[in-house]
Amino acid sequence: MNIPEDYDPTGVQHYDIPSFLFNTGRRLPVRIAYRSFNSALRRVVCIPTPEHSHINTTYNYTLNALRDYHVIVVATLGNGESSSPSNTLDFPQPVYQDCVSASYELLTKHFNIQDLEAVVGYGMGGQQAYYWMCMRPGFVKSAVVICGSARTSPFNHMLLDGIAATMGGSAVDTMDKAGLNGTGPHGYGKVTCAWSTSSAWFKDESFRTILGHETLPEFIEEYNNAFRDWNAADLLALVRMWQLGDVGALRDDGSYLKALEDITGRVLVIASRTDSYFSPEDSAIELKHLKFGKLEILETIWGHAAGSGVCEEDMERICKMIAAFLGEK
User: Fold this and answer.
1) Which of 55, 90, 309, 329 is the most buried (most CB within 10 A)?
2) If pLDDT is split at 50, 70 and 90, which confidence band does 329 have?
3) pLDDT for 116-138, tens place per residue?
4) What is the DSSP string of 118-153?
5) What are the structural domains of the chain?
6) Is the pTM of the predicted complex or chain greater than 0.90?
7) How far apart are CA 201 and CA 303, in angstroms?
């Protein structure tokens, strides 16, 4: 399994889909992990888990910006809680279309939900929010994309391929290179720790002044250990799905910009000034093609991690942005 030994699964439940149709055309039984908060409230928000989180380590906003909403956090396919290479034999490479389709079935058939007030996502969850807007325009009213994009940029793609290569092969070979027992040392954290924040963060020695590590190697070792219990096949499946992120794949002409132009709902994009994966410049380009889009820039040294909840000051600002956006008519 792809679950840390010290992980607290309180409140996590599962929904089984006996015959789920993957985007590849294959059918397979799948299990979707989720957690429901404030279920008595009428307005519903869905939060897909991001790339490095499980359900109970995903920031859910239930104590602040989303306190007045029924919040359902859904584990992304491949993260080890929902169906993944680590827990499902011959599991196919998932894509965002699969995540949205499986979550839609959970929400409509299990919860009997008629519409979503919003999909709020960070990183890979933010990319899923864009897919929701394109795939289910009559079901989702709005999206909040935090440190994410409608298309994984070529630069982002190459960063991810470098990460996958250090784990034993290109992300293109995800399912061929890793299997159910891919739990050995893989160095994923050592490769990603630099990209998660920013050069300014390291220049300020934030690993020492903020996190309390005496040396840089000590910080790197602890960061890498956070992924110790993650299954290599699951990590590679997530990396590959991230690489394939492109709402243009939903159109015959492959244009992600035209896909954005077709979105009829409201979209709030929150970008980190120092995000190495999802640059604010790319977000600005995407915003030009949204009918009802709004872009907020976080001035922060925390890079991509600014949207994860690790920096309290950044999260306070994000919460205010989300609350203001959802409060607009």
Assistant:
1) 55
2) low
3) 999 999 999 999 999 999 999 99
4) EEEEETHHHHHHHHHHHH-TTTB-EEEEES--SB--
5) 13-153+247-327 (3.40.50.1820)
6) yes
7) 8
Tokens of 130: 């864009």
- Tens digits of residue pLDDT in 14-65: 999 999 999 999 999 999 999 999 999 999 999 999 999 999 999 999 999 9
Q: Cα dist. 167→183, 210, 220, 227 in Å?
A: 11, 30, 17, 12
Give the model confidence (pLDDT) of 301-315 as tens digits: 999 999 999 999 999
Furthest C-alpha separation in the chain: 53
3-state secondary structure of 65: coil
What ranges in the chain are assigned the alpha helix state H?
A: 96-105, 124-135, 154-166, 174-177, 188-196, 199-203, 206-209, 216-225, 232-243, 256-261, 280-287, 312-327
Q: What are phi and psi of 242, to 5 degrees?
A: -60, -45
- Model confidence over 86-127: pLDDT tens digits? 999 999 999 999 999 999 999 999 999 999 999 999 999 999
pLDDT reported for residue 2:
58
Which residue type is seen at 57?
T
- Give the single-character DSSP code of 93: P
CA distance 293 to 291: 6
d(C-alpha 253, C-alpha 220), whole Å: 43
**DSSP secondary structure letter of residue 172:** G
Q: How far apart are CA 199 and CA 13, in angstroms?
A: 39
Q: CA dist 178 to 25, 43, 153, 240, Å?
A: 22, 41, 25, 13
Amino acid at the residue 71: V
